Task: structure prediction
Amino acid sequence: QLQLVESGGGLVQPGGSLRLSCAASGFTLDNYAIGWFRQAPGKEREGVSCISHSGDYTHYVDSVKGRFTISRDNAKNTVYLRMNNLEPEDTAVYYCAKRLGCGSYIALSWDGWGQGTQVTVSS
Result:
């Protein structure tokens, strides 16, 4: 089964940092763009960032630009999301998913969803 597995979430104070990991199970990541999404309680799932299969293109939504950094290590079959200067509004379950390319955060166009990892930003 082609699936992604997220890890690295936790409880952090405002202004703190976390690094999320997205590892592939059953396939190699280097053929796919990887997107990070998040879903807060009572809200729809939203796209956060995307990285192309080669890593030479990245995209961030405005709310995380300058604070989050997406990267990938294809040798380790893993994509990362470094999150700095976290805010309470970043609290959500974070998911990663795969697609042939970036260009859309419409959830139905992505697959391989993992179980998510909880990020809670609170003092």
User: Anything to note?
Assistant: The beta strands are 3-7, 10-12, 18-25, 33-39, 46-51, 58-60, 68-73, 78-83, 92-99, 117-121. The radius of gyration is 13 Å.
